[in-house]
Amino acid sequence: MNFKSQNTKDRNLICSKFGIEIPSDRSRWISEEEVEVISPKTLLKKFEIGKIDLLQIDAEGYDLEVIRIFDIENSKPEAIIFENVGLEENDYQTYLEKLKDAGYKTRKFGPNTLALKNGYTEFQKYFT
To answer: What's the pTM?
Structure first.
């Protein structure tokens, strides 16, 4: 369901299921919140994460940038899932090659791509 395509009555009904009230004044539809931003390296260190089984990325078009800054070669997640929708084909192919060079197999599943570290058998059935 595309939330933007819903009429006001439908949006209110959907939001009310989650206890959310949509302000009638459209200027109040956007809010700001400050959040702490830390690098993936700092995140791993801060929370003492020694091993990543699954790195799930959903960054609204910035998925390849997350892969780039996550230092996949050193953090070595067993599996990575990221969105491939809206990416420039050249950029997408470049990152598939980088993942391959880092020891991953990749498989596109509709709007997502699964990158699986060679030797990791948990999801092998998706690559046969």
So the answer is: 0.70
